[in-house]
Design a protein that fits this description.
Length: about 140
């Protein structure tokens, strides 16, 4: 399969692995957003979070939580952001589920997503659309 993360998992291509067990691997991002940016992936290939079984997501996220705390401690970061992208529109470029762990440093210049103003009517219309899908 032509998946760069599968190739990293089977060690066909090198990476800086920081954690590995039978289900999950974590390695350093090749183009880090901040010092210590790491990726946590399930070993099983699935394109994204929606395509992945709940037990696999659970194993991967629980490991990401532990690894993020270790990264913060090791690198004296001030916090971290954990995120995953689903779909090209969200910025996904590698279609093998991965959680980014981005260590955050005070004054790191990583600005948050721009917030928008909205009206109470718009918010409740949108909430109603979403709630219909959750029934
Ligand atoms: P996405 O944009 O899909 O959410 O994130 C993909 C991430 O994978 C990017 O942050 C990118 O730098 C990283 N990446 C892409 N190719 C490689 C690679 O060959 N090795 C490593 N270690 N990271 C990679
Ligand atoms: Zn893969």
């Amino acid at each position: 399969m032509d998946c760069v993360f599968c190739k990293i998992i089977c060690k066909e291509i090198p990476s800086d692995i920081i954690f590995e067990d039978d289900k999950v691997m974590a390695f350093m991002d090749i183009r880090p957003v901040s010092r210590g940016h790491a990726l946590v992936v399930p070993k099983e290939h699935k394109a994204d979070i929606v395509e992945t079984d709940d037990d696999v997501i659970s194993d991967t996220v629980l490991e990401a939580k532990k690894i993020a705390a270790a990264i913060q401690h090791a690198l004296h970061a001030d916090g971290f952001t954990i995120s995953t992208n689903r779909g090209e529109a969200a910025g996904q470029t590698v279609f093998h589920l991965h959680f980014h762990i981005i260590p955050r440093y005070r004054r790191d210049g990583l600005t948050a997503w721009p917030h928008q103003d909205t009206t109470p009517e718009t918010r409740s219309q949108i909430a109603a659309e979403i709630k219909k899908q959750l029934l």
